[in-house]
Design a protein that fits this description.
alpha+beta; about 35% helix; 15 helices
Length: about 500
């Protein structure tokens, strides 16, 4: 069904045709020689009388016609600047069409234009550009949302509907400048982490997104079919097992910013497609990794904000090292008043009932403990806290604790009531690893659709020998949420997953 044009869309298409009638290409192909930007011009221009010729391009965001001269506002990737357009400056010959027809009547808010001219200050001291040459670069056929800001800084008619903003991020970025800042900060966060790893000589790598076995985590995968090989393939749920293969291969430290996929629920902290950073370093353990992690996060926060204490919702979070530490079982005891360390599966299930935590028969000890912790403990960890020494049932890829064979050498970093990072002293005993995988298969047979698959090739790699290793994974999207004070994961993803748009 053809889209029915409203009055504004119709007018813009008429304007498009008028440009073509005048011999002006509304979508020219040639390079436009931009040599400055809005912020640079405003920052550098100080003195009236300076002779400074500039060439800028961007969207026209406002237009004030005043007879033979007009003011407009140009927005480029850095910000906005005022331009002064005089009829006789841009049309020095007798033909005044470019001003009288094109600029005054055909150009609309949202159109891309290029301007060349002199920088000057208006009588009220606003740095502006006196245009000597104006070029049409792209005609917009739909009007932008008009966002007005009054003298007190209050926004009116803002493009504020969350669903619309996520669905049309391209508009969100144009009319809500603070959104763009979040994504610039996201890049700074990733660059800070990357520089931290590179300075220590660790190698950034790429591992497969399409995998024959979805390994490295307990999660429900997306399944697809490879026609040429005629096999089922899985979108990766984690990159852990591939990175460990590289440690087997002789790399001392490897890391990857990995796009992962889990066919699970969506909410304000979960998207089916998300970014994780995983790092594995040979000859290290989880104690070393705790210190490494808190040093990396402190550095990243300081690189972004210049300080360690930052706002997050109603809290002030202090990322200064060292972070607090507590064992997993001690945390449950602290917040439930009960020691669960010696409980059987049936006893744990009964305990869950007393806590009003829903369970089902497919849940083994690991799931039950996880439910208790998630419900009763997790929300209490606001300041950065390492929760460590998890029961072995909960960590199929983790080495047994050196002092207690019932536990593993694992930690999770909790911030603002959520898990931010997960790390192990990695299991490198191939026989023990096989046994752990087989226990996972029993859970799968009980109906746990998040239980791990057995990766035979990974077991084979371990049999060739993997050095003592520590690994850590951190949810990049969640880290960005915390460091930019956003309440929803959708606010830190440029294009979050959305339900199909309803046809109007």
């Amino acid at each position: 069904m053809a889209h029915e044009l409203n009055d504004q869309e119709t007018e813009r298409r008429e304007g498009l045709n008028r440009l073509r009638e005048l011999g002006i290409n509304p979508y020219p192909a040639a390079l436009y020689p931009v040599d400055s930007n809005a912020v640079e011009v405003k920052d550098k221009f100080k003195e009236e009388g300076e002779q400074w010729e500039v060439c800028l391009a961007g969207r026209m965001m406002s237009k004030r016609i005043m007879g033979k001269a007009s003011f407009a506002e140009l927005m480029d990737h850095t910000g906005r600047i005022q331009v002064y357009v005089s009829r006789d400056e841009i049309c020095p010959e007798d033909d005044k069409t470019l001003y009288n027809d094109v600029f005054k009547k055909v150009l609309d808010i949202g159109d891309f234009i290029g301007v060349k001219g002199q920088v000057f200050k208006t009588k009220v001291g606003e740095t502006s550009i006196r245009v000597t040459e104006l070029t049409v670069l792209s005609k917009s056929l739909k009007p932008l949302p008009i966002v007005k800001t009054d003298a007190d800084g209050n926004v009116h008619d803002g493009f504020a509907d969350k669903e619309q903003r996520y669905r049309m991020r391209y508009l969100d970025l144009v009319v809500n400048p603070e959104v763009k800042k979040v994504f610039e900060q996201r890049t700074k966060i990733i660059n800070s982490m990357r520089s931290f790893f590179n300075a220590r000589g660790y190698l950034e790598v790429d591992t497969p997104v399409l995998q024959p076995i979805p390994g490295g985590a307990a999660a429900r995968p997306f399944v697809t079919h490879h026609n040429s090989l005629d096999i089922e393939m899985y979108m990766r749920i984690a990159n852990e097992l591939y990175l460990k293969r590289l440690i087997v291969g002789g790399f001392d430290g490897v890391y990857e910013f990995s796009r992962n996929f889990r066919n699970e629920g969506m909410d304000r902290t979960h998207n089916p497609e998300f970014t994780v950073m995983e790092i594995y370093v040979a000859y290290k353990d989880y104690e070393w990794m705790m210190e490494f992690t808190e040093e990396m996060i402190e550095k990243t926060v300081v690189d972004l904000h210049g300080k360690t204490k930052i706002p997050l919702g109603e809290h002030q979070i202090n990322f200064q090292r060292p972070f607090s530490r507590i064992t997993f079982l001690r945390a449950i005891e602290k917040f439930t008043g009960t020691d669960v360390s010696k409980m059987s599966e049936d006893e744990l299930r009964a305990f869950c009932k007393t806590l009003h935590i829903e369970t089902d028969e497919s849940m083994g000890k690991a799931k039950l403990l996880d439910e208790i912790f998630g419900e009763k403990c997790e929300p209490n960890f606001i300041q950065p806290t390492f929760v460590m020494d998890y029961p072995k049932e909960m960590s199929p890829l983790c080495k047994m604790h050196r002092d207690n064979p019932e536990l593993t050498e694992r930690f999770e970093l909790m911030v603002n009531g959520k898990e931010l990072a997960n790390a192990y002293t990695e299991l490198n005993d191939p026989i023990n690893q096989r046994e752990r995988f087989e226990e996972q298969m029993k859970l799968s047979e009980k109906g746990d659709d998040e239980a791990m698959f057995i990766d035979q090739d990974f077991l084979r790699a371990l049999e060739y020998g993997m050095p003592p290793t520590s690994g850590m994974g951190i949810g990049v999207d969640r880290l960005v949420m915390f460091l930019t004070n956003q309440t929803s994961i959708q606010d830190v993803l440029l294009f979050p997953q959305m339900r199909p748009e309803k046809e109007s």
